[in-house]
Design brief:
single chain; 435 residues; alpha/beta; protoporphyrinogen ix oxidase, domain 3; 3 domains; binds flavin-adenine dinucleotide
């Protein structure tokens, strides 16, 4: 009879992204025993960096906007000074001009009729707010930004980013990530006053060798990690996991793999949980790594591209975050694509390069050394009307099984790397109490 090799771990952690690594590190520091199981061959998950021919690429822009001073100190210590503190220099390409981001605070420099439409719409929205609160993200934009800003930036850009109609998206995540414009900022931006500090992401930390340095540093104190160790089955009643071809017996389980993956690994889900799981939606993302033999043509970190004629909605320059992201004299870009289907590169790449030339991002297509298509299966959890009711069924179910599912995809939310670090240490505290 075949018996699977069996391992016993007091605390099993699924996933070696920032959440899982931070959980493991916290447990080890408290002298607890744990092991991390990671599907891929490296740590970092969405916060990974790959290297190719001297060029370094993250999974699109990953910048550390740390609000907690304590966490900031910890991250600086982990990176041992090998990181930059950077003031945002991001722009919007629209209506044939380049304006600083955020769009609503920089109408100066737009064609006058566009600036007028934006200002008029904003003032009307402020003066005559509807009596009912906005029911969805589209209404939130119209209500707080007005018709002009919505038409020229907020609606087309966010439609392209999320890949779903904005009237399907709720407003419960907006207060933090989509701050309402203030009258004084809009007016200052209309007459060209300095306004570049606005928004949650105006200053950020970035490791010299790419964001992957952060999980690599965390992994040094996270203890044992099994790689190529994919979750196949969770048998929660028996506190068993099948990981690859190994049976793992655990006392406490912390999972940071996507909630959908975790639920799909349980054989007979109660029908109401199976129905709730089907209601969870997430947007995938396809993007391009672009290696250039020339330095950047324009000086910006990342640019928003709301206009539909371009096949990409955002482009960023890793080598503007750190020159070490490209070999001397070169530069490296990410280009986030609107289309979620597998790209036909022979058609798409010339179109993208023509767009980048038109926007003045690159000098010429002949500067390109290579382009590679990349794919994130999970990018943005969709906050639609189904999400909260579905989670209200799934969360108590997992709780009843003693499973802690956390992280951006483990808890099915829209959150940052700072949150992931926090989720990881909070999950560790809970796991330590239980074990
Ligand atoms: C396009 C994009 C841009 C972003 N930009 C920023 C930014 O600028 N700043 C910021 O703060 N945040 C940003 N984020 C958010 C940030 O990436 C996440 O908050 C953070 O990386 C989440 O970490 P995590 O550990 O929770 O999840 P993940 O990084 O997804 O880690 C989960 C891990 O589980 C592993 N796994 C999956 N399935 C299995 C399985 N079956 N078995 C075993 N292991 C498995 C994965 O390989 C992965 O390593 C961005 C996210 C995206 C998508």
């Amino acid at each position: 009879m075949f018996r699977m090799p069996t391992r016993h771990v007091p605390i099993a952690i699924l996933g070696a992204g920032l959440t899982g690594l931070c959980a493991a590190r916290t447990i080890r520091r408290a002298r607890g025993a744990c092991r991390v199981f990671e599907r891929s061959r490296h740590v970092g998950g969405h916060a990974s960096t790959i290297e190719d021919q001297g060029y370094r690429f993250d999974c699109t822009g990953h910048l550390l906007h740390l609000r907690s001073d304590a966490l900031r100190e910890e991250v600086l210590e982990l990176l041992d000074g090998a990181c930059f503190e950077i003031d945002r220099n991001s722009v919007v390409f629209s209506n044939g001009v380049t304006t600083p981001y955020p769009f609503q605070a920089h109408t100066h420099g737009l064609p006058p009729e566009v600036a007028y439409e934006c200002l008029l719409g904003f003032l009307r929205a402020v003066q005559h707010p509807p009596s009912e609160p906005p029911r969805n993200f589209e209404e939130y934009c119209l209500r707080h930004f007005g018709a002009g800003f919505s038409r020229h930036f907020m609606l087309p850009y966010n439609r392209r980013l999320f890949g779903v109609p904005l009237d399907q998206i709720t407003t419960d995540w907006c207060e933090r990530f989509v701050p309402r414009p203030k009258l004084e900022d809009v007016l200052a931006g209309a007459v060209g006053l300095e306004n570049s500090r606005l928004g949650y992401n105006s200053r950020f930390l970035y490791p010299k060798l790419g964001i992957g340095e952060l999980p690599r540093a965390l992994a040094r104190s996270a203890g044992d990690i099994s790689f190529d160790a994919s979750l196949v089955e969770l048998r929660p009643e028996r506190r068993e996991l099948v990981i690859g071809s190994e049976l793992v017996r655990y006392e406490t389980l912390v999972s940071s793999v996507p909630l959908t993956t975790l639920l799909d690994s349980i054989r007979e889900l109660p029908s109401e949980v199976a129905a709730a799981r089907k209601r969870l939606r997430v947007t995938e993302l396809r993007y391009l790594d672009v290696a250039l033999a020339a330095p950047p043509k324009r000086d910006f970190h990342w640019a928003y591209v709301p206009e539909e004629r371009f096949p990409f909605y955002r482009v960023g320059q890793y080598s503007a975050f750190s020159q070490e992201m490209a070999p001397p004299g070169g530069s490296s870009l990410y280009v986030e694509l609107v289309d979620r289907k597998p790209p036909d590169l022979s058609r798409l790449v010339p179109e993208v390069l023509a767009g980048l030339c038109e926007l003045g991002v690159i000098h010429s297509a002949s500067d390109v050394r290579f382009v590679r298509a990349r794919h994130l299966e999970q990018a943005y959890v969709i906050y639609d009307a189904e999400r909260a009711p579905a989670l209200s069924v799934i969360e108590p179910f997992l709780e009843s099984l003693g499973v802690i599912s956390t992280g951006r995809y483990g808890a099915w939310n829209y959150s940052s790397m700072e949150d992931a670090l926090r989720f990881g240490s909070e999950a560790a505290e809970r796991a330590l109490v239980r074990s």
